[in-house]
Specification:
The chain is α/β, with parallel strands linked by helices. The protein has one domain: Rossmann fold, CATH 3.40.50.150. Helices cover 32% and strands 18% of the residues. The chain has a seven-stranded mixed beta sheet with strand order 3-2-1-4-5-7-6, with helices on both faces. The two termini are 28 Å apart.
Length: 266
């Protein structure tokens, strides 16, 4: 493990014990149990359902599983799920939730760029959710291993921040102000992050041997997208304030696509 990856791992272990607790609260977990599909953007979920009309007993791997909301949702939808994350604390906290509810989910501490504990040709479906790519310093390694662990004809679907937002800092604004050129990809900050372009992500997929089947560029489903939930409480905003954040006339950045989803197959 290189120095940057070690810094990221230590940071997530710390965050998991502090502000990240809100994603493990009873309210968040109850909502997933009530409506597992609510974890996903509706367009991304439509892509998943088109690829897998029935998830029952499908083998699914979720690298960089983070809050594990997608993992829990896939399990509740009938899949056999493996959750991989570089942070032991994230996995421990998620394992605790799964154990409380009697959910049979496999948790493996693993770097998404290697997936060394995962067998080749093992999974029907690999899914990566919001916030994965920003922590990846080697896209080629990530996608080569996603390709490796998929069964022949298996599917990969990603959901993440649209790269077009990255030059603007992803904060609501009446006037657009760039914080970096689009083609400057990082690393940025003491805890290294990367702001990959669409071409970087898609070329890494294609070079791994994956075949791109479909792509969607989506808007946020509500104004909470624009709230930094590590610092602010979205529940404190009125419905009118949330609607204004989604209106491109009051928040210029809302005129750009906020999310990107891609479906590829082996």
């Amino acid at each position: 493990m290189n120095k940057d990856t070690a810094i990221i791992k230590d940071s997530w272990n710390e965050w998991s014990e502090t502000w990240y607790q809100r994603y493990r609260g009873n309210g968040a977990i109850s909502q997933i149990i009530k409506a597992p599909e609510s974890v996903f953007h509706h367009t991304t979920f439509s892509m998943i359902k088109k690829a897998f009309p029935n998830l029952q007993n499908k083998r699914i791997c979720v690298p960089s599983s983070g809050d594990n909301h997608a993992v829990f949702a896939f399990h509740l939808l009938g899949a056999r799920v493996t959750s991989c994350d570089i942070s032991e604390k994230q996995l421990e906290n998620s394992f605790h939730i799964a154990s409380e509810h009697g959910w049979d989910i496999e948790f493996i501490c693993e770097d998404t760029m290697s997936l060394s504990k995962i067998n080749s040709n093992e999974y029907d479906f690999v899914y990566t959710s919001n916030g994965v790519h920003v922590w990846i310093n080697d896209l080629a390694a990530m996608y080569n291993n996603i390709h490796r662990i998929l069964k022949p004809s298996g599917s990969y679907i990603m959901f993440d921040i649209h790269p077009f937002l990255r030059p603007f800092g992803i904060r609501a604004a009446k006037e657009i102000k760039a914080v970096k050129p689009y083609d400057v990809t990082g690393p940025f900050g003491e805890i290294p992050t990367y702001k990959w372009r669409i071409q970087d992500i898609l070329n890494a997929m294609l070079s791994s041997g994956l075949s791109i089947k479909h792509m969607e560029e989506m808007y946020a489903e509500d104004g909470s997208f624009w709230v930094d939930d590590s610092k602010e409480d979205v529940d404190a905003l009125t419905q009118q304030e949330l609607e204004e954040l989604s209106n491109w006339q009051s928040n210029t950045l809302a005129g750009l696509p906020q999310w990107l989803s891609v479906h590829a197959t082996k």
